[in-house]
Backbone:
């Protein structure tokens, strides 16, 4: 079979032409997302925040994060794209825009990974023009060594090495999003 995902006993995953190795377990991911949910609950419990999930990569993280948030909240989605294969294209496209009104709302932007910071930088500029009451950012992953655009990430799941990763919503050309833990490229 081609284009399928398989895991062998040594925790490696082959996705098309590339091999990945486990780096953060499902258990550790779950624990950390709960911790982030607790922090957000403390900071936003009575503010009815609007979580805005950046599609596609953040959908898995956002789904778990909102259920770890103990308070009323709403959820919206935008679709931005900047990656092709394992590399950034250098530009951000809005593929699907925001349908919710954000003026005077407390907005929590949910991102899968902050790599160069280009996507978040672009999106935060756009958001601020809509006059929200506040904006904060939460990223499941951050690659500090890869940061080019100055963006503040208020809540970070894990800081990782500057290596391509898949799993927990992140993909390699569409594959690997369903992996419950995180895997990094074997070079
Ligand atoms: P940035 O705009 O360079 O910060 O990249 C952010 C976007 O690129 C993320 O939302 C991801 O969709 C994608 N991306 C960056 N690094 C990775 C990676 O290691 N694996 C999968 N997708 C990535
Ligand atoms: Mg992606």
Residues:
């Amino acid at each position: 079979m081609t284009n399928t995902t398989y895991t062998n006993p040594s925790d490696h995953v082959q996705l098309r032409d590339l091999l990945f190795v486990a780096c953060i377990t499902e258990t550790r991911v779950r624990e950390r997302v709960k911790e982030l949910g607790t922090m957000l609950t403390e900071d936003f419990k009575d503010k009815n925040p609007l979580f805005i999930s950046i599609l596609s990569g953040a959908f898995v993280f956002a789904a778990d994060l909102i259920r770890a948030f103990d308070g009323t909240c709403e959820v919206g989605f935008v679709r931005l794209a900047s990656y092709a294969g394992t590399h950034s294209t250098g530009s951000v496209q809005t593929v699907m825009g925001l349908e919710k009104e954000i003026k005077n709302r407390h907005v929590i932007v949910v991102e899968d990974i902050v790599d160069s910071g280009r996507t978040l930088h672009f999106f935060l500029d756009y958001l601020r023009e809509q006059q929200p009451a506040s904006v904060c950012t939460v990223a499941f992953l951050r690659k500090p060594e890869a940061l080019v655009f100055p963006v503040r990430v208020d809540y970070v799941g894990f800081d990782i090495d500057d290596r391509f990763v898949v799993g927990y919503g992140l993909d390699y050309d569409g594959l690997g999003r369903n992996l419950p833990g995180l895997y990094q490229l074997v070079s």
